Amino acid sequence: MSSVAAPAQAPAANPLREGLEQERVPDASCLVIFGASGDLTGRKLLPALYSLAHDGLLPAGQTIIGFARPDYSDDAFRMAMREACDKYARTRPVDDAIWQNFAKGLFYVQGDFSQPDGYSRLNQKLQECDRTRGTGGRRIYYLAVPPQFFPVISELLGAEKMVTDPERGGPFTRVIIEKPFGHDLESAKELNRVAVSTFRERQVFRIDHYLGKETVQNLLVLRFANGIFEPFWNRQYIDHVQFTVAESIGVEKRGSYFEGAGITRDIVQNHLLQLVSLTAMEPPVAFEADPVRDEKVKVLRALREFPKGREGENVARGQYTDGSVLGEKAVAYRKEANVSPESKVETFAAMKVFVDNWRWADVPFYIRAGKRLPKRVTDISIHFRPAPYPMWRKLRGVDTRPNVLAIRIQPDEGISLKFDSKVPGPSVRTAPVTMEFRYATSFGAEPPEAYERLLLETMLGDSTLFARRDEVETAWAWLDPLLNAWAADPRPPDFYPAGTWGPESADLLIERDGRKWRRP
Amino acid sequence: MSLQPLEADVRVDVTAIEKHLAELWRSSKEVGDEVLTRAALWNVVAHTCTSESHAQADEALGKASEAVPQRTIIVRANRAAPPEMSAWISANCHLVGGGKQVCSEEISIVAGGDRVHRVPPIVNALLIPDMPVAMWWLGDLPNEHEDYVLSLLEPADRLIVDSAHFDSPDDLMLIDRVASKTTTTPADLNWERLEEWRRATAMMFDPPHMRSRLESIRRVRVVAATSDRDYFGESVEALLYASWLSAQVGHHVDTEGKVEGSVGSIDYVIERRMQQNGVGGITFAEISFEDASCASISRDRDRGVLLANVDGNLSMPESVTRAVPCGIDALIVRQLKRTKGDQVLLKVLPVAARLAKRVAR
What we know:
By secondary structure, chain A is an alpha/beta fold. In chain A, 34% of the residues lie in helices and 20% in strands. Chain A has 2 domains: 15-178, Rossmann fold (3-Layer(aba) Sandwich); 212-511, Dihydrodipicolinate Reductase, domain 2 (2-Layer Sandwich). In chain A, the strands form 3 sheets. Chain A has a 9-stranded mixed sheet with strand order 16-15-14-13-7-12-11-8-17, sandwiched between helices. In chain A, strands 3-2-1-4-5-6 form a 6-stranded parallel sheet, sandwiched between helices. The longest helix of chain A has 26 residues, at 255-280. Chain B has 361 residues and is of the alpha/beta class. Chain B folds into 2 domains: 10-156, no CATH class; 193-358, Dihydrodipicolinate Reductase, domain 2 (2-Layer Sandwich), CATH 3.30.360. Chain B has 11 helices and 17 strands. Chain A binds chain B through residues 7, 11-12, 14-20, 25, 27-28, 54, 56, 59-61, 95-98, 100-101, 104-105, 132-134, 412, 436, 438, 440-445, and chain B through 37, 39, 41, 66-69, 96-98, 102, 195-196, 198-208, 211-212, 214, 245, 248-250, 300, 303-305, 308, 316-322, 342-345.
């Protein structure tokens, strides 16, 4: 084997990188994509990798090996991936010169995930790349496969001795896992147990693509790089917080997956709870993987448990029926392909959540996620308490409203602050006005895709933007009682017509507190 | 004020430019243009002397404002011209999707004869507060001792020049003095042109085994494409590249331009090669090591890329860096996207002034 052992001491930083946009670049490695014939590889992974190459962010010699059951040649795989990049890459049109060089590092190995012979061929290919492309035994395994294949892949990688670790004197091996990270607490623990039987926790990168989004990262910058927000970011000044993750599409081809998941497992357990924890967390001591994740997990631990026997009290669940979205007819969830006509699976969930700690005591966090809602939008809004004394109350035309800081995660990423202003004229009248920051307006260029950022971070070995084992398990531990209660409930979810903002029960959930959902 | 398209130039009273700008935006609201956003991240002042350079600044900053919204102030000041003081305002607008438009303001000020001295206070009054100021100087470099120049540079965070137009090493020294004696940080568009060359070079030395070879550099040869005229500016890009390498690797350049490194004296060669295309740019760079191996980067102009490879005792895959020639507007955008002044350039400028003696004629 030609693997080059990592030097005992990390070499000095490259002085020629100083002042360049990317001051740190990864060492060349072999990135193996398990499930390379799947949708994710063509739609997201290869276009993201190509865009990184286009922007000069991949090291010379970076190698990508597709591994899947269909029998492709290297050239056929390259051709398919070129088509995918032509269609989906952020940096289009594809630059021929960049592509040609990128494609020289693109290979395919045919194999069955559960058969050792494929792994032997893969290992041979990897060693060949170490010799010809300077990848030095460094490996990243991307498991773009359904979770049931994770144990067997891990086991066979271990059995074939394809996992090394600098702490044991070898080059790095990292593994990227796609969500869902389990179906409930028990299965998540099992997945994690399997992972750490082959890899160490710091070798495992659990990808939640929301964390790769610029606006999600900007949430931390907004809170902790600006002096003006943090003093107000607590129960003294904040009345409540709303989170919306709305999709206008239905379940599309994912009917059978969704029947086993529902929106709570698909969105709330991961994306939404990530947003909640980033919004509510305390300042970390450093912007590094463990300090950031330590603070996030503290928020998850502080989530108030659902009251036993009354789990459904502060929640609303819904399922879409026939309707229309953006002027187009949409069929009911129960009529979608691979969905039971009597399905009880929720396509919408809204919850009133409390973070029981010093900062957030009794501040409600209203969260909602749904499919077939009027538009695709992800949004966080911080609703501040009203001014303490209504000094204008005797004047007509003065109707003061609480300030709202809205953080738009997607689309049209940006931040706005709503406040009241005097309407010009001789009398005192007020009207709400908005101060807006939009990424597109201020920074022009389209931000990199979340997968670009996350793949690069994995190559660099920085797991700040990835979920840690205890985050995943704590989130499941909190949600499990609710999911169990729903599973035991014979009643179907409340129905809502496709193209509306969910069932009436979701409105009642917030309106009985004298508040309203903000229209995102 | 009558309603006009925002982009149209409107001649205004020099003493009331801000008032006219407010009216411009109000008029856009009156015509129901609710999808228009006014934005600015920078104050950019372009200082020109001729109508040609004024037009060049107008075109470049109009394009640049799409990527970096800015309040643009273009000054054309010519003491030799008849006395004159006039101003125009307009808006640079572009679509950002969803039918929405982002606009930023452009103000043109033309001053001639003895009215020129009124320019600095007018410009200073027009700067948006709490927003950084970039001064782009087109044409001959300013005399840093002149009151007029000092007043203009006083609020500037950055002074943007283009060393491709420098006619002697003294100009490099002048910019270096601005850096050391004022709070204005110099920025060079020619330095921005080097970005891809720096990236391609850095990429070659990213692998740990290559990084250690930086200490064994014995010779650096950089080839500049030049025309048939003997003009210093045409080799400045190559000079900056060599100076950057020397500064970053830790080579010592003495006042005569001789270079010493940990392995002894190092030969820096900057060659001028007459070419039809890409005059002023680098066409080839070669770094030779103690063991006689060498790393090289060449420009493939047809494919718009830089090709880097390492020969001799080492082998690694060729790397390709995209390097499409940038227009002035793109270089300005690169510059404005830097939130801080470029500290590496500040290190490189004095080295370049000394190494300039090595520019082969």
